[in-house]
Amino acid sequence: MFSQLKNLRIETDGRYATEQELAFLKAYLGSVRQRISTYEKVRDAEEVIMDQVEENLKSIDPQIFQKGTEDCSEICRRDRKNTLRHSAAAMLFNDVDRLREGLLIWQGTIVRAIQSEEASSLTWQEMPKVVEDHLSPEESELMGPALQLTRTLLM
Description:
two-stranded antiparallel ribbon; mainly alpha; 7 helices
């Protein structure tokens, strides 16, 4: 949303915006209540979502959070929370570009650097399923683009 508003401001400098240029704003304003509700549901269910994802991941691979002899469960949980929070904010503001550029590219680099691609891939296969369990179909549709982008960039 903010990126689109910034672009609209630049593109319409000194003139009125056309109906076509305003369409995204009208669509966003029409969905803002649903976006807020979705954001609040994800926020309020965050710990339950984290627990369910962790349980699912450990049932797939009991050693998923092990790096040698080190248990990285807490670090991975922190990172999952951070990414879910950014994904929810991207949905709220309808701005997946900021999610991609502000977090996911950097995080993808870290995942590859520490060779955690498998854990990341499994995490972002499971996360959307668990999140959707806490949302209505309409809310899941709103969260879908952010979760899909996250899945794509962190697999």
